[in-house]
Each structure stands twice: as structure tokens, then as C-alpha cells.
Q: What sequence folds into this?
């Protein structure tokens, strides 16, 4: 509890004790009034002060002012009707303060527990300077410094491992519980925990640019992009207070006026009392607080399992998604290609590989990477020039003075050669040298182990259509699609065609669509889809930037999980909206009919708020 | 859909720690901050207790923030904004 909260607590306890004592002390008339006023002031003086300030600033609909009017009104009624009973005025303000205190505690408690989910920020770094280690704050470490990370510590900055073999626990970033092995030459992401032995790392990024900072920023900023429900609540809150206050005024004036006209007794005090009940519940706090809190908890909970949702409105769209569109390579398949064979070539496999790998030496396409990996002896960079990468087709380079074209059949057609088809299933890379066909290399990719389960699960949670878009040939695409039981497959697409295809699917009005890609070449599609999901975002800035949801590891099974998290969160948001508005309405109706008193109203109001806050916290669970 | 925020835009956005007790007051503060001249947009994250202000190009950040604090104090005398 903060100092402020403790002080409030003290005031509440003193006032409650005195309040109870007052019930047993036989005070009469003016003395009783003085004693009651004293207790009232102990518990309400700050509200009175704030309401005076508020009124001076022209804030008539300020909740402090309304509470002051309601409680002083109750006081006045107690004096007027001669009963000398001021319990109600004190009780209302006492309950109100208890409610405020509870709200304040609940909010700081839930803030802390959600913040704990995001507690991946490293606090310090051991920097090696002149052979000595000094411990500094991570944001003081320049690029290229050597840092040492002991077992049990967080890697503070992104870098390349120089020395040491260890295991890294990436679960805070990816939700993946199996540690990654870490060896010299490999990247170490900030936010991972070093498990086994010390690592020396050369930093490649400043703290402000490092993975852990980016993820934290995304999670914290996610809540500032408001969802439809939040916008609705903001609008509702803005009109709610004026409407309730207006209704209170009408209730105080209209029924007595009607009664007078009808010749009955006006019963001013009864109606005044009922209208004061309205003022007591005129603050829309339960709604205004619990809806963003639910989203925040939901985003935090998803973050814990490595699903970064970049805004609460994506949560809403994802929960309603009906169509799932996937990229193939790197998303459903492992994206690791292995060279299987070379066919129809006058060269040997290694010779052909050497040329192809050289031609593709600057490309980051997964196929290029696997060609380079399979190539036993790569050519020196001096032998390679004039490299041009043609998106969706391949690469044309000059290698040792030869024009080497490496790519698909369309590229071959462009080179004026006829490509020989292959009878095997896999990715076929055709090669033409000086406009003459030089054979093809067969590369095959395998499905990720969880792809089948992920797709089955999507169907079982009610996704109506699953589609795969790929730049690959139809034979490979068909084979993958049969294994995954997809509804639709479109193959041999350029990135631009993928956008068109997604747009066409969006026009069919099947419902919201999400696109899952690995972030390489997919940025336009990720941006175009209702929700763009990037997989394997760890370390890839482009994917983190372009996508609306980032799956930190590359496990497709996280996608149904993300949808379940989103749906759960939205369900909680709806419950809170219905519950909070329903309870307010019930109080208003019962109050107007004289079936509820002020005690009941304030009790219900505070109770609803607390239940809504507790309900919000449920959204944090990611199961 | 917006894709990338450029560096320039990022520098015109600033975060401030705030202290405010009730969620409704926070949304009122957000509302009045948006109306301060020199402010392009504002968002309060009640849970993180953070105010994000996006300034108009060429705005005097210090002067704008003084006006923002004043406007917020008017709707919620109890709030704190640390700039």
C-alpha cells in the first residue's frame, strides 16, 4: 500500500469506529448533529475540498462534487425530517471512500502483476573495459562492447557470442520452454537467460534498439491503440454522467410537480432522496477501468507465451476471425531446404551447386541459404558481379564471366531456355548458363512437426476456411495441402499476387481474415490482411514492424492459442460491459421506484467495480 | 493500415509518467490534453500510468506541456504529471 492509501485506510478505520460508537451513545439534538458532522468531515474532507476546486474550475459533473451533493443532501434531509438520523450521509461517504481505496489497491495490485509479466527488462550489464569488468546500466553500453553474462543472468543487449558454450532460456521472449544452445558466432538475444556457463558477447545493438526493449515498447504501447469496445466505453462514459445527473434533476422535480397538479401531497423529500441515489452511482468508473484492464491483462497473458499482440483492436478482430491464410515456406514448413539431387545437368552436383550458390550469394531467400549451405567450396566474392534479384523469379548474376540465371521456370522462359520438368516433389531450382539450360537442383522442405495439429485445431475452434498461398510450384503445394487438409491452395504467386489473393478472400465476406507469414517478403500481405501474423519474429525487425501480431517462436500451434486467448479476453470484456451497465441500470430503476436506498446503491456500485476488476485479471491466463 | 512510423514521427512523441487515481479522471485528462494547442494526439494508459503526447511539428514542447499540466489539473486537481 502506498502512503496515500495507508492514510486513507487510517481515516476510514477511525471514522468507522466513531460511527459505530455513535450508535450506542445516547446523544440528542444538536449534539448528535455535531458528532455526526465531525465524523463526516474526518472521512469526507478531501472530497469536499476537491469538489470546491472542481466547481471553481467549472467542473460541475465531477464525481467529487456529485458525491458531496448526494451526501450533504442526505444530511439536510436528516435535519429536515426531524429524525436527526445522519447515519446515511456518513455511511454513503464511508462506503464511497472504502470503494475508492479498494479500487486503488486493486488497480495497483493488478498493475503490478501484469507488469511482472513484462518484467524482462535487464537491469545491468557487465562490460569488459581494459581487461576489467565493470557493472553498468545497459543503456550506457555502446555498440561493439564486450559484455560478459554469467549463468543465471539475463543477456542485457543483442550481440554475437565470442566465447563460451551455453544454453539460453528464451521462454520470457518466446514462451518456448526448451532452451536453445548457444555457441561462438551465434546471435544472442537480449532478454534470454544464460543457463549454464559464462558467455562473452560482442554487442551489435544499443539498448534502445535491442530486442528486449522493442518487445517491451510494443507491449506497453499496445494498449494505446484502442479497440471498438474501448471506444464505445469512452463515448458511453462521456454521456453517462450528464444523463444520470439530468435524470436525477428530473426525478427530484417532475414527480412532485405532477403530484401537486393532481392535488396530492408533493412528497418533496422522498423524491429528493431518490434523486440523490442517482448521483451516488453517477461515476462510470467500473467500465472505464475494467475494459482497458481486461485488454491489458489479455495482451500481457499472451505475451507470456510468446504471442505479441500489438493492439487491443487486433485482439477483437482475431477473436472474430473466420478465414486463415498461410504462407507456406517458413510458416507451415520448416523453411530449411536440403539439397537432394541435381538432374539433367552436364555438371556434377558440386560444380552446379558452386555456380548456383555463387549466383545467389547475396540473397537472403531461404533457398539461397540452403544452396550456400550445401555448397562444399564456395567461390571467392571477386568472381561474382552484377547480381540482380528478381522477386518471385530468382537471381541472375555474372560468375567468372558467365551469365548464371538461377530460379524457377518463368525465369528460364525469360532467359529463352526450356526448363526440364522434374518428377520429384520438392522445390526445383533451374539453372541456365549463358542462356543454355544447365539442369536443375532438387531441394525439399519438410512440414513443421506441429503444423498438422495446428490446422486441425483451427478447424475445431471454428475457423471456416484455411488457405495456403505460396510462390512454390503446384506439385509441392498440393502435397503440403493434402497433408494438412487445407481448403484452398494457390501456388506460383508473386508477393503482389498474394496481396490480390488476400483481397479477393476479404471480399467474399466470409468474415475477418488473418494472414500468417514468416515476415520475409510478406510485409505487404501482412499489412493488407485484417490481422497480419508474423512468425519467428525473434530478431527480425521487419516482421515485428509490419505485423499486427508476432509469434515469437516459429511454432504454428501458437496460432490457435492466440485465437483462444483473444476470444477469452473479448468474452471477459463483454461480461464486464454487460455486468457493469446492467448493475448501474438496475440500481437506477430500483432507486427511482424507491426499492433501493443509498446504502444499497453505493454498495452495489463498489461491488460491481471490484468484481469487474477481478474478472479482468482472469484475462491474464493464457491456458 | 499504417505500416511504419518514421524516425521523425517518433521524436515528436513523448511519454510522461503520471499519477492519477481514477480511470474516469484519466480519460477526462486524455480528452483535455488532446484539446491543448500544439498537441496532435494524446493517449493515457491508465494501467501503466503513462501519458503519451504527440506534438505538432515545430511545437515548443515545454510550453505545450505546461499548458497540458494546467488543463489536467483543472479537470483532476489530484493528478501528477512528471515532465
A:
Amino acid at each position: 500500500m502506498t502512503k496515500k492509501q495507508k492514510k486513507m485506510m487510517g481515516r476510514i478505520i477511525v471514522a468507522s469506529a466513531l460511527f459505530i460508537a455513535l450508535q450506542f451513545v445516547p446523544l440528542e439534538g444538536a449534539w448528535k448533529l455535531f458528532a455526526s458532522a465531525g465524523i463526516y468531515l474526518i472521512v469526507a474532507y478531501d472530497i469536499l475540498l476537491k469538489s470546491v476546486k472542481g466547481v471553481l474550475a467549472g467542473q460541475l459533473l465531477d464525481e467529487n462534487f456529485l458525491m458531496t451533493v448526494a451526501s450533504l443532501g442526505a444530511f439536510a434531509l436528516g435535519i429536515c425530517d426531524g429524525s436527526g438520523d445522519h447515519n446515511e450521509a456518513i455511511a454513503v461517504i464511508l462506503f464511497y471512500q472504502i470503494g475508492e481505496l479498494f479500487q486503488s489497491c486493486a488497480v495497483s495490485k493488478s498493475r503490478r502483476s501484469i507488469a511482472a509479466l513484462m518484467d524482462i527488462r535487464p537491469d545491468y550489464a557487465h562490460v569488459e573495459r581494459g581487461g576489467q569488468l565493470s557493472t553498468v546500466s545497459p543503456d550506457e553500453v555502446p555498440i561493439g562492447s564486450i559484455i560478459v553474462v554469467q549463468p543465471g543472468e539475463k543477456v542485457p543487449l543483442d550481440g554475437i557470442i565470442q566465447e563460451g558454450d551455453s544454453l539460453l532460456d528464451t521462454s520470457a521472449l518466446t514462451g518456448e520452454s526448451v532452451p536453445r544452445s548457444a555457441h561462438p558466432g551465434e546471435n544472442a538475444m537480449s532478454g534470454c537467460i544464460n543457463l549454464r556457463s559464462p558467455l562473452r558477447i560482442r554487442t551489435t545493438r544499443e539498448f534502445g534498439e535491442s530486442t528486449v526493449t522493442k518487445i517491451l515498447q510494443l507491449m506497453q504501447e499496445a494498449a494505446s491503440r484502442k479497440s471498438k469496445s474501448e471506444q464505445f466505453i469512452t463515448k458511453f462514459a462521456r454521456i453517462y454522467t450528464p444523463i444520470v445527473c439530468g435524470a436525477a434533476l428530473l426525478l427530484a422535480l417532475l414527480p412532485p410537480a405532477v403530484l401537486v397538479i393532481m392535488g396530492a401531497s408533493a412528497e418533496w423529500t422522498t423524491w429528493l432522496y431518490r434523486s440523490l441515489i442517482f448521483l451516488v452511482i453517477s461515476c462510470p468508473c467500473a467500465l472505464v477501468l475494467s475494459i482497458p484492464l481486461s485488454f491489458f491483462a489479455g495482451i500481457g497473458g499472451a505475451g507470456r507465451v510468446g504471442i505479441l499482440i500489438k493492439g487491443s483492436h487486433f485482439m477483437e478482430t482475431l477473436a472474430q476471425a473466420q478465414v486463415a491464410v498461410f504462407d507456406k515456406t517458413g510458416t507451415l514448413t520448416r523453411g530449411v531446404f536440403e539439397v537432394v539431387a541435381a538432374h539433367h545437368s552436364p555438371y556434377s552436383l558440386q560444380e552446379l551447386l558452386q555456380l548456383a550458390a555463387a549466383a545467389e550469394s547475396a540473397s537472403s531467400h531461404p533457398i539461397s541459404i540452403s544452396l550456400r549451405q550445401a555448397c562444399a567450396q564456395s567461390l571467392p566474392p571477386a568472381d561474382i558481379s552484377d547480381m540482380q534479384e528478381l522477386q518471385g523469379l530468382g537471381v541472375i548474376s555474372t560468375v567468372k564471366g558467365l551469365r548464371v540465371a538461377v530460379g524457377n521456370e518463368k525465369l528460364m522462359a525469360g532467359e529463352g531456355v526450356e526448363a526440364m520438368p522434374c518428377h520429384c516433389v520438392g522445390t526445383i531450382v533451374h539453372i541456365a548458363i549463358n542462356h543454355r539450360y544447365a539442369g536443375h537442383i532438387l531441394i525439399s522442405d519438410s512440414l513443421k512437426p506441429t503444423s498438422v495439429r495446428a490446422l486441425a485445431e483451427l478447424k475445431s475452434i471454428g475457423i471456416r476456411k484455411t488457405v495456403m498461398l505460396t510462390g512454390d510450384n503446384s506439385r509441392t503445394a498440393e502435397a503440403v495441402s493434402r497433408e494438412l487438409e487445407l481448403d484452398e491452395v494457390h501456388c506460383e504467386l508473386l508477393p503482389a499476387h498474394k496481396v490480390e489473393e488476400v483481397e479477393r478472400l476479404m471480399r467474399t465476406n466470409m468474415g475477418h481474415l488473418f494472414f500468417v507469414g514468416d515476415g520475409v517478403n510478406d510485409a505487404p500481405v501482412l499489412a493488407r490482411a485484417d490481422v497480419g501474423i508474423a512468425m519467428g519474429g525473434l530478431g527480425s525487425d521487419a516482421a515485428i514492424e509490419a505485423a499486427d501480431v508476432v509469434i515469437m517462436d516459429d511454432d504454428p500451434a501458437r496460432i490457435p492459442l492466440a485465437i483462444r486467448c483473444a476470444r477469452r479476453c473479448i468474452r471477459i470484456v463483454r461480461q464486464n460491459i454487460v455486468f457493469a451497465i446492467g448493475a448501474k441500470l438496475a440500481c437506477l430503476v430500483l432507486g427511482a421506484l424507491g426499492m433501493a436506498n443509498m446504502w444499497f446503491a453505493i454498495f452495489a456500485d463498489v461491488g460491481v467495480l471490484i468484481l469487474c476488476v477481478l474478472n479482468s485479471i482472469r484475462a491474464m491466463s493464457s491456458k | 493500415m499504417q505500416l511504419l512510423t518514421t524516425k521523425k514521427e517518433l521524436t515528436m512523441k513523448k511519454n510522461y509518467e503520471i499519477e492519477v487515481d481514477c480511470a474516469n479522471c484519466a480519460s477526462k485528462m486524455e480528452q483535455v490534453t488532446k484539446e491543448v494547442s500544439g498537441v496532435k494526439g494524446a493517449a493515457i494508459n491508465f494501467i501503466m500510468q503513462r501519458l503519451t503526447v504527440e506534438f505538432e511539428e515545430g511545437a515548443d514542447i515545454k510550453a505545450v506541456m505546461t499548458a497540458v499540466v494546467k488543463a489536467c489539473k483543472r479537470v483532476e486537481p489530484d493528478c501528477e504529471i512528471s515532465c
Remarks:
- The domain at 10-82 of chain B is CATH 3.30.70.100 (Alpha-Beta Plaits).
- Residues 1-10 of chain B have pLDDT under 50 and may be disordered.
- The radius of gyration of chain B is 13 Å.
